[in-house]
Write a structure and sequence with these properties.
Layout: E1 4-8, E2 29-33, H1 41-48, E3 53-56, E4 76-79, H2 89-95, E5 98-100, H3 107-122, H4 125-133, E6 149-153, H5 157-168, E7 172-176, H6 182-188, E8 191-192, H7 195-201, E9 204-207, H8 221-225, E10 231-235, H9 244-253, E11 256-261, E12 281-283, H10 292-310
Parallel strand pairs: 1-2, 1-3, 3-4, 4-5, 6-7, 6-9, 7-8, 9-10, 10-11, 11-12
Helix pairs in contact: 3-5
Length: about 325
Amino acid sequence: MEKLTIVVPGDSPPQIQDSVHLDRLKPYGDVVVYTDRPESIEEKIKRAENADILINSRGLVKWNEDVLPYLPRLKLISLCSIGTDMIALDVAKKQGIVVCNQPGRTAPVVAEHGFGLMFALSKRAAFMTASLKDGNWPRMDNVFLQGKTLGIIGTGHIGSEMARLGIAIGMNVVAWTYNPSDKRGKDLGIQFVDFEDLLRISDVVSLHVKLTDDSFHLIGEYELSIMKPGVLIVNVSRGQVIDVDALIKALNGGHIGGAALDVYEQEPLPENHPLLTCEQVILTPHCADMTPEGVDLLNEGAVDNIIAFLNGTPINVVV
């Protein structure tokens, strides 16, 4: 077998750069690891121009039409993620570059994070912590979740796990998905409802759809306006699924009870972003699967995808 060049082009914070799973690739070729994030298009091209295979460890580094045409040797991009929106898939397909992701691999980890965000939001944890640090002793109503309605938007691996967790604590779980079925609802123990009905009846709305043209700004000004007053919103999918300007307006206007977000339209979140001035928010830095267990699962999966590809039995192929 021809010896290949496998490149980890770098990211910050690092993910697979020091993983023991990279050792499994040494029989297949040279593994070149960068430990910092490429800060320009030129730097990305320089690092990857001799690569046969790329391992993209975090979504902050994009591989779009401004870079991929300059990588003629590239055969495979193996992602340490479920999402693929950091890759120009149409360009990759045109160039014959295979892209592999990891659907469902860390679903329990991500769902647990979303579940934790829901609890932190409902108990006003960040607001009360800040108030206490300022010398106050706040009295504000928390939200009792048992018996409340949890609306799941998207019932893939993560949404399904979030539904299971909601049911486990006694929430009434309803859901909307692009392709509902009675069997799927029965298997999950949930009821599928119309999209607007879900928005109107849910006390908590939790987002679990992938980013597509159809899901871009799926939640906007109108959708927020028909939600229950005081509704809580959780997003561990992609930032662009919510119109953030509309969300901020609804938060500051008092119609929305709070939002818990792990993902944003712009990442990293700028230090002057107006979300940071909203009181009833819980914010984490796109780290829902960043537990030691989650990171190891993703690193292992990225290497598994490469070995399967090199053995002529590719798995988890997106394009």
